[in-house]
Amino acid sequence: MRVEKEINDLVTACAQCFYCRVCPAFQTIKWESVSPRGRVYTIKGLIRRKIELEPQLVEDFYKCTTCGACEEQCQTTLPLVDIWEHVRAEFVKEKVAPLPAHKKIRELAEKSGNPYGEPQEKKIEWIKGYKYNESGELLYFAGCTASFRAVELAKNTVELFNKAGVEFTFAGKDEYCCGSPFLRTGQRDIAYEFFKKNYNEWKKRGVKTIVSSCAGCYRTILIDYPKIAKELGLDWDFKVMHTSQLVNKLIKEGKLTPKKFEAKVTYHDPCHLGRHTKVYEEPREVIKAIGAELIEMDRNRGESFCCGSGGGVKSQFKDLAGAIGKNRIQEAKETGAEYLISCCPFCKYHLKQMAEESGVNIKVADLVEIVNNLVGSSDIKAEDIKCG
Amino acid sequence: MGDIPKSDWKVQRYLYTRDISSAPLITLLLKYVDEIYQPRNEEEVMEILKMAKQEGATVIPRGAGTSGYGGVLPVKDIALFRFSSRKTIMIDTTRMDSFEINEDEQIVECSPGAVWWDIEKKLNKKGLTLRIYPTSAPSSTVAGWIAQNGTGVGSLKYGGIAENVTKIRVADFNGVKEVEGKDLKYYVGMCGTTGIITKAWVKVKEVEDMHYYAFHLPPHKAGKLVYEGEHYAALYLDEGYVKLKNQSFGTNLPEKDTLMIATTEKMSEGDEELGEEIWETRFYPMRVRKLGPGLVAAENVLPVDSIPAYLNALHRMVKQPNGSEIWYVKGKKGAVLTFIPSDERKFLNYALTWRQSLRALRTAKKMRGVPYSLGLYLSCESKLLLKQDYEEIREFKKKIDPEDLLNPGKVFPKGVFPLIIGIGQKVVIL
Question: Contact B286/A15, CB-based, under 8 Å?
């Protein structure tokens, strides 16, 4: 397999110290072939023709949620997530990837504009009844998961914006997938197509700031989009925010005055929001502002343990995603918290499922849902959240 | 073999035929392990040993594979001067990683694959802490470090690992036994050549308030200061290493010889901010590898009064950028770890840089030094390291493992490696 010189330099720098053993996939499967060190050896082996590119090797290479826990511990500070994504893209070029589930998601996205294969028109349905503008400087990017699978998050977010008097625009059916599932699984070309559609739409609407309630979308727009724009020779002058940051700002400015949330909570740092983009404190500041008692899990912030669903793992390796998620649920349970709060619909969706499957009695909620239910009244059914 | 997790997949065999060393040409003398087993308990270890004995297969135990002495590398039979090939089985202790803390006795009962820093985190919750641990603590395992006879952080006050385990359990072809006291010498530092460690009782202590001080001192003064008090740990970074550290960490530390002392005592002098900064990066000595990319290292243990002359000799000898760090050890000794960044893909240059490792060893020996550990690469130095115990331990090995199935070629010199390294030390003047 041929890789760029830069990747060759990077894998040569690996100290092989195995501090990356914190990898949730390795912690679950226990074999070197799924560990970050093993993947680095694998790349070296492929470059030096010591091993051959075979299906099992490719499959094990994809047993990685791209959570970045390895990168956080790396003795030689290697950009490991970039390396994994780059090599996955090489696998796609070599036609040994994508894996079946990832290929299916691409087929759905090619037809519909989103990885769930839902009609784009549905993206406009959930927002009916809420106030938003056709154009404006601030854009709410709901993301596909909140639009189709965790609609309550999208609704709570815009209801909260309305309560705080936040003027925003929303692209509706013209909001395309951010491309994250495809960038993570090596299918870069389609991500570039979605980038172009979103970019043009934002420019058309006069957008200057993009707010997303999905950690995956936020990471993609904050980190990947400027690189893609540069490659395509386009200007990149958008400011990107996660809703937790905006909500924190609104509370600090006095534009939101939530009631007290008298509950014991623990907070799960989504990998894309925490390790990837270093947003650790704002969600915690919001939790503090609503008066909840925050009990940290043993592994938090940079050492947070992944929920198990990212990087294409949930779609292709359900058992692995489940085992990692249940591990995290167990850790949350050990805190004695009533609520497991996160800031990512993908994490929430998966952790909630895993809590149910494990029979663990913990309520899984997004931070925005909780805050919205603490500000005035809400029309959204919030079955698990007791406020006041 | 019941349902013991096992792999004989070629890629997995390739991945497990590694440690942190990347010695040039050496791979020509190595083979892939044939099967890797991940036992979950002592009974499964015994089951694997029984099968190995029946099949005449060799057995290599492996912790995290974080040593650089080749102790977990499978050697070709021909390189051991055997003309019939034997199957090689690896026992990977990854799944045997549990441990239990006995607060009253301040002992942790550890399975072999328990990771040092996992233990430390749990201990801290109970107000306890390890007495000593390796600088690879985030990944290295209890049995792995015992099998290396390691010294590390805390060894200034508490000595090496042998002084910090009260007892171990060991499996061999005859069964499982508990070993303590003087008999530990048959297993500590033996790389699994005399038995597979299945449990270890490690001494711990109460957490104490620690202070960290940095001093800019030449090595002879540093050595003196270290042993003037009852300090917990001391790390010396020579100017060359500080330069490499600045380049690889992106820091701006004063580029001078620097001593860091970690102590419960209050010291009247010393830079506490710098001391803490050095302490916090103690687990990252190999970050300098990215400067190569690649690294040649030498690690020798010398009497403290020999260290200044040894460092001087290294400075004269090694022309490439290089640096040394020294962890001081109880008994007025220092483990000197020298780093020479070198691009491991540039074969000739990298191979020539490796000879510096042998030159450093030869220089250390002239100054009453010994290698830090033996493994595969330095088995030729076992008489020097084990001294009067060598013959006794060798006889013990013959008795319990007459067919030399337990990690052959390691610790006890056999085959091509001791010849190459022995000759190499004589001709490194090149």
Answer: yes
Residue B228 CB neighbours (<10 A): 9
Task: State whether A240 and A112 are in the same domain.
Answer: yes
Residue A217 and residue A89 share a domain: no
Q: Where do the H-state alpha helices sit in B185-271?
A: 219-226, 239-249
**8-state DSSP, B74:** P
Q: What is the DSSP letter of B357?
A: H
- CATH for B95-206 is 3.30.465.10
The ipTM (two decimal places) reads 0.97
pLDDT along chain A (388 residues), means of 10: 85 97 98 98 94 97 98 98 97 97 98 97 95 97 95 96 98 98 98 98 98 98 98 98 98 97 97 98 98 98 98 98 98 98 96 98 97 87 54
Q: Are A112 and A140 in contact (CB under 8 A)?
A: no
Determine how many CB atoms are found less than 10 A away from the CB of residue A365. Answer: 24
Of the candidates B10, B66, B293, which has its C-beta nearest A51's C-beta?
Answer: B10
**Residue A348 in contact with residue A364, Cβ under 8 Å?**
yes
For residue A119 the two structure tokens come to 């009609």
Please report the pLDDT score of residue A5 as a whole number. 84
User: Bridge partners of B370?
Assistant: B301
- What is the sign of the dihedral through the CA atoms of B142, B144, B147 and B151? negative
Considering only CA atoms, which of A378, A383, A343, A373 is closest in space to residue A259?
A373
pLDDT tens per residue across span A294-315: 999 999 999 999 999 999 999 9
* Confidence (pLDDT) at A263: 97
The two three-digit tokens of residue A209, written as one number: 């700031």
Number of domains chain A contains? 3
Radius of gyration of chain A from Cα atoms? Answer: 21
Alpha-carbon torsion (B398, B399, B400, B402), positive or negative: positive
Considering only CB atoms, B293 lies closest to which of A9, A33, A54, namely A9
**At residue A148, what are phi and psi to the nearest 5 degrees?**
-115, -30
Expressed in angstroms, the distance from the first to the final Cα of chain B is 51
Which residues span the domain enclosing A205? 100-247
Q: Does A6 touch chain B (CB under 8 A)?
A: no
Instruction: Give me the CATH number covering residue A321.
Output: 3.40.50
State how beta strands B295-303 and B323-329 pair: unpaired
The closest alpha carbon to B335, from B153, B170, B93, belongs to B153
Residue B127 pLDDT more than 60? yes
Cα–Cα distance for residue pair B309/B312, rounded to 1 Å? 5
Owner of token pair 């050095």: B278
> Which amino acid would we find at residue B14?
Y
Per-residue DSSP letters for A326-347? HHHHHHHHHTT-SEEEES-HHH
The CA distance from A125 to A131, in Å, is: 13
Any CB–CB contact under 8 A between B321 and chain A?
no
pLDDT digits (tens, 9 = 90+) for A157-193: 999 999 999 999 999 999 999 999 999 999 999 999 9
Strand order of the sheet with strand B6-7? Answer: B6-7, B35-37, B88-92, B58-62
A26 and A77 part of one domain: yes
Question: In this complex, is the C-beta atom of B347 within 8 Å of any C-beta atom belonging to chain A?
Answer: no
Examine the domain organization and report whether A143 and A79 are in the same domain: no
Q: Which residues of B touch A60 (CB under 8 A)?
A: 11
Instruction: Give a yes or no: residue A47 inside a domain.
Output: yes
Fold of B211-371: Vanillyl-alcohol Oxidase; Chain A, domain 3 (3.40.462)
Answer whether B139 sits within 8 Å of A18, measured CB to CB: yes
Q: How far apart are CA B131 and CA B157, in angstroms?
A: 9
- A10 contact B CB<8A: yes
A30 in contact with B, Cβ within 8 Å: yes
**CB-count exposure of residue B257 (10 Å: 0-12, 13-18, 19+):** buried
- Percent of chain A exceeding pLDDT 90 equals 95
Is residue A82 domain-shared with residue A146, that is, in the same domain? no
- Identify the three-state secondary structure at position A147: helix
